[in-house]
Amino acid sequence: MKLGIIGAMEQEVETLVSLLENKRTVEYAGSLFCEGVLDGVDAVVVRCGIGKVNAALCVQILCDRFGVTHLVNTGIAGSLCSELDIGDLVISRDAMYHDAQACVFGYPAGQVPGMPLTYEADTQMVRLAVEAGESVNPGHCTVGRVASGDQFVSEKALKEQIIAITQALCTEMEGAAIAHAAYRNGIPFVIIRAISDKADDSAEMDYPSFEAVAARRCAAVTRAFATLLKKKNAQ
Ligand code: ADE
After folding, report:
1. CATH number at residue 26
2. Predicted TM-score of the model (pTM)
3. What sign for the dihedral angle of Cα 128, 139, 154, 157?
4. Model confidence over 34-55: pLDDT tens digits?
5. What range does the domain containing 160 cover?
6. Best substitution site from 12, 73, 76, 152 to test ligand 1's pocket, by max atoms within 8 Å of Cβ?
């Protein structure tokens, strides 16, 4: 078992990188891949950079060069649902693009032709991520859809449009691309996100204040998840 852990920004990965034992770092395609042992689990942690292409690139490198067996995408997200507040956790049941459009050929909004409309997360990883999330933030961990696109969502109208297309719980800029690349490689994945803003006109104000708190929470959940996955795989 080798866990590939992807975060888009430095704040999302720095805690996990600092916890790696026996750390080796190597650069591919402009990203630093930090390989080592995280709480007893072989792991590679990488900051992929923001957006879908950066995210997918890193998945392929994790598969080809590191032979990862499981993928976790962790980081922050904007809430698409009034019940989800800043600091709350979302675990992906599945992931979907909100900015893919080939409707003229009969595909629903969000679907890349030839690909599924949604990418299903691994059910065992989801279960363990929920258990990890509940241990870090009890009662504030929801399973559902994650919507991704190359847009920071900070307008109510765009938020409403994304909800109408995806019915997702939260939006961010990498998860579905990671899910898509995991699907192409036959690797199980889960997305673990903490809410940093409401993805509306308040997002620009909330995001800088809550980014660090939410990112730290994600790191704690990912760490707990790694421990649970190790236990499960040893059984
Ligand atoms: N990541 C965190 N908040 C976000 C938002 N509002 N839109 C896109 N990605 C985000």
Report:
1. 3.40.50.1580
2. 0.97
3. positive
4. 999 999 999 999 999 999 999 9
5. 3-234
6. 152
